[in-house]
Design goal:
rod-shaped, 0% strand
């Protein structure tokens, strides 16, 4: 009886683990799709600074709460040279 019960328990545990892994993967994909809808990095008010990400809604910036932001103003993505000011280089 024990020789039949042990492999059955192992297979049930393995099946449960793989099922939980599939559910976790599906939840991760859903969360990534939700976060890709956040428009903050394309907004005029987004600074890109980790201390103050947004001048209008700093607590909502880069979170799922910012998906329907009423103050969103589209702008072109900032490149590496867009953040540099003229005359701010080293002499």
């Amino acid at each position: 009886m024990l020789t039949l019960l042990c492999p059955l328990v192992i297979w049930l545990m393995l099946t449960g683990f793989l099922t939980a892994l599939c559910f976790a993967f599906a939840d991760g994909v859903e969360l990534l799709q939700k976060l890709h809808r956040v428009p903050c990095d394309r907004c005029y008010y987004f600074s890109g600074d980790h201390r103050l990400k947004c001048a209008v809604h700093p607590c909502r910036a880069m979170t799922p709460m910012a998906v329907g932001c009423p103050d969103f103003i589209a702008t072109t993505p900032r490149g590496f040279s867009a953040g540099k000011r003229q005359g701010a280089g080293l002499v």
